[in-house]
Recover the amino acids of this structure.
């Protein structure tokens, strides 16, 4: 068996993943750009999500498991008043509920978000990037498979309301989350 040659490049880098690109696409681009086969990432982002991905190159790939144990931060725009078939902005609305003026009130939003703080069980959506039998859950769900994921323990350390705005008459809460 041939031995792997030592990596010429050993580092962690941050890549701003755009919407529409998969995490695997990012890794493939880094492999080509660096001419290095040993490239990995510290957490999958859904193709519809944009954000910073930590990429390990060469020997630094050994550190990726430790990085995923740390907290993560996200900024989310939460549009109130509708639910989609995919639990994201891409899906068709499946339920519509009226919102009243209190949903546009920052004090009310702060109160609701305080209830998110702490440890709880959360069922991930079928359209998440979680791997099920080696295939991403969102791929199975978009192929029409019925995907049921088990509840996981999560901790929300902070849910900081950044803004309350409006999109086509629906209140939108922009929230910075720090989570497990």
């Amino acid at each position: 068996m041939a031995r792997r040659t030592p990596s010429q490049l050993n580092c962690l880098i941050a890549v701003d993943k755009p919407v529409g690109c998969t995490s695997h696409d990012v890794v493939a681009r880094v492999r080509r750009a660096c001419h290095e086969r040993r490239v990995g990432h510290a957490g999958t982002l859904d193709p519809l999500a944009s954000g910073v991905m930590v990429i390990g190159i060469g020997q630094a790939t050994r550190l990726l498991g430790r990085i995923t144990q740390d907290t993560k931060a996200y900024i989310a725009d939460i549009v109130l008043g509708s639910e989609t078939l995919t639990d994201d902005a891409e899906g068709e609305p499946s339920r519509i509920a009226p919102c009243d003026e209190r949903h546009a009130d920052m004090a009310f939003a702060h109160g609701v978000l305080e209830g998110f703080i702490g440890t709880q069980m959360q069922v991930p959506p079928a359209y998440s990037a979680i791997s099920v039998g080696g295939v991403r859950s969102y791929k199975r769900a978009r192929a029409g498979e019925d995907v049921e994921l088990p509840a996981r323990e999560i901790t929300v350390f902070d849910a900081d309301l950044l803004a309350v705005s409006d999109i086509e008459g629906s209140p939108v809460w922009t929230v910075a989350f720090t989570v497990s």
